Amino acid sequence: MTSTDVLDVRAKAQREKRRRRIASIVYIAIGITLFFVAWVLLSLEASPWHYDIPPPFGAVGPFQDILQGVWGLFREEGAIAHFWSNLGTSQDMRIKFVHACPDLHPANVNNPFRQVASSLMGWKYTSDTAALTGGPLPVPIGQLPDYCYGYGIHLIVTIIRILLGAAFGTIAGLAIGLSSLVFPKVAQVFTPIASFFGTAPIFIAAPFFVIWFGVEVPIMTTIGLVTFYTTLLMYFFSRRAAENIPVGIVESALTLGGTPRSIFRWVYLPGTVPEIAGGFRIALAGAWGLGVLVEVLGIQVGGGHLIDIWRFLIGQLQAPSALVALITFYGVLAVVVDALLLVVIRYLTRWSEAGRRLGL
Amino acid sequence: MSRVVSFEGLWCVFEHRSGQLVNALHDVSFEVQPGEFVCVVGRSGHGKTTLLRVLAGLQPPTAGQTRLGDTVVEGPGADRAMVFQQDTVFPWLHVRDNVEFGLRALKVDDEERKSTTAHWLDAVGLTDFADSWPRELSGGMRKRVALAAAMAVGSDVILMDEPFGSLDYFTRRNLHDVLLDLWEETQKTIFFVTHDIEEALILADRVILLAEGKLVDDIPVDLPRPRDEDVRASAGAVDITKTILAHLGITEEEATQV
Hints:
The complex is a heterodimer of chains A (360) and B (258). With 360 residues, chain A is mainly α. Chain A is 72% helix and 1% strand. Chain A has a two-stranded antiparallel sheet with strand order 1-2. The two termini of chain A are 32 Å apart. Chain B is an alpha/beta fold and 258 residues long. Chain B is built from 9 helices and 10 strands. In chain B, strand 7, helix 5 (169-186) and strand 8 (189-194) form a beta-alpha-beta unit. In chain B, helix 4 (139-152) packs parallel to helix 5 (169-186). The longest helix of chain B is centred in the last third of the chain and has 18 residues, at 169-186. Chain B is globular and about 50 Å long. Chain B starts with a strand and ends with a helix. The model of chain B has no long low-confidence stretch (mean pLDDT 90). At the A-B interface, helix 12 and helix 13 of A face strand 6, helix 2 and helix 4 of B.
């Protein structure tokens, strides 16, 4: 074999790698297309779910829908069109549910989320108050235009809460799980507790969190429950990951002079990454559902609250469109976050064959 | 600074699940001088690995003690680095970091750590693979990484538990040469567990024979080095082989059939 042949083999391997990546992207595109095709078919008049499931882009034929997909975003009668047009501001919610529309008046804005919301929709506020008062000055609440925050701010609030809860829970779970390897007493204390709570479905705990901590302090409800759930999962995953490190590797580290600290840093921490990362993906996937569920139960801001509102309004004001759009949003969001996680996990586990092949 | 290794009245008794007691080591006593290359030979399950684990400090003896110089072995330590039968190279560390592991644990300063690592990587012929992941190496190369890591921590004694057992003949022969070169360069005491008599003849100054946990013979291997095919076919080598086989309860005929 000459060096030219070697180069040919390398080029072939690179072409193959590129081909696999392109194929993965094509498969994702096919998956998304099939998803929308299924959605359109379920929303057709012939479908038994016709009244429950609105068309994604608009009330035209399925094939036109797919072809006019992007264009359909600007049509008003489809679920995605509804979501898109209500993303920044929403008139419909203002009409029916005033409490769902935090006050736009700057004097009443003291919640940090509301401040973010105000600045996000500052353009709208400025133009409307200017029209009412002749300038961008505060106006009495009664004179405010008939719209309120759109889906965007609610969804951002939910995302922040869930990610914060998952982050707190992961840190706590890993800290307890990994420290229990160094200090067995921690495991003796925590394992029975975690096992007790771990056997009960976590959704059962959701109403208790709402009852105990109320709906006004989301850090104790949405964030609290997601943290609790993630802590339990990450504790178990970190323990299991450490147990799966071959004993021979730990013994080898000991005979090379490894101290508990160096073995923790150079053996347990990196060695447990693949399983912990896999566990985190599972925990986060569950956290999306859990966080939204708690909001449905009573929190006054967030995606779950929007779903709750539209649940009451079923049959009116494009409620099915709104519900389907919100659920789709969370599905897409979970997939996107998972894809980003995959990239990070692939980097962290690049030493393992499985890690190298993860994702694209 | 090398020290004498002494095993003094060593017993190691395990309780089988059925409640039956198994003597893995049965009153084993012997001494090993600094710089000796000792092969521990015996059938499977006759206490070879247990003996090595007791010396490594990974297995406490039921009775008796092991000493390194004046120090009684009470736990694992870098003065008795071990190369295992299974693959124990850390897969999440580059080859260089694997060799550096022990030096980091011993808090060796950066400059010395780097130069020591570079020296041992060179000694085992892996300088070009310093930044590779273990998964990118062959089985033989991974064994060389483990060997370099054990050598790098500056142990008095290197313990090797059938380290080349899973490798093919040619790789094993190559690693024998690497190991003997390192041994001659460092004059460390090496304990090498094997059930391969030919391997013991190639490597050892002395063969410790274990049968059912008892030390049944301590055979000096007075053959010239390097021990090529001719040396291993010499009358002296054949006599040693016959003695070992006799102790292990294997006839020459059986050995030939194997």
